[in-house]
Specification:
Elements: H1 18-29, E1 39-49, E2 53-63, E3 76-85, E4 95-100, H2 116-132
Antiparallel strand pairs: 1-2, 2-3, 3-4
Length: about 130
């Protein structure tokens, strides 16, 4: 069965603001198939000026709080970059990439469906590491 990759309509470069970028990341996250017990918060990290683009960096930090452990033992972060090209017209949509904290692999939302298992793996690895210490 072919998985449909859910994506959102990204704003144009001329309509972009830091706040709007964060709203759009939240909109993207809402399309991900993740159990509601996962909680996250997102934040803007920094703006980066490059020769042919501006990059806006964000982070979404995920955890699995429970009644017995309201503060999760470990969290998993997903880092997002919204790129505004200086070469394309300002009516072109922004480009969006993300990567998991434990990985160098850069993913594009329109090419890859997010998997809850990635968050679980990061958290399990962290818990295993802290138990070894």
């Amino acid at each position: 069965s072919k998985h449909v990759i859910k994506n959102i309509l990204w704003i144009t470069a001329k309509d972009f603001t830091v706040e709007r970028g964060q709203q759009q990341i939240e909109e993207l996250i809402s399309t991900w198939d993740i159990h509601e017990s996962w909680l996250h918060h997102s934040e803007f990290l920094e703006e980066e000026e490059l020769k042919d683009s501006k990059r806006y960096h964000y982070r979404a930090c995920w955890g699995l709080p429970t009644r017995r452990k309201p503060i999760p033992r470990a969290t998993a972060s997903v880092y997002f970059v919204i790129v505004i090209s200086k070469l394309k017209p300002d009516t072109a949509p922004v480009e969006v990439f993300y990567r998991l904290e434990s990985s160098r692999q850069i993913r594009r939302p329109e090419q890859c469906q997010f998997r809850e298992k990635w968050l679980q793996d990061i958290i399990e690895n962290k818990i295993v590491c802290t138990e070894r210490l």
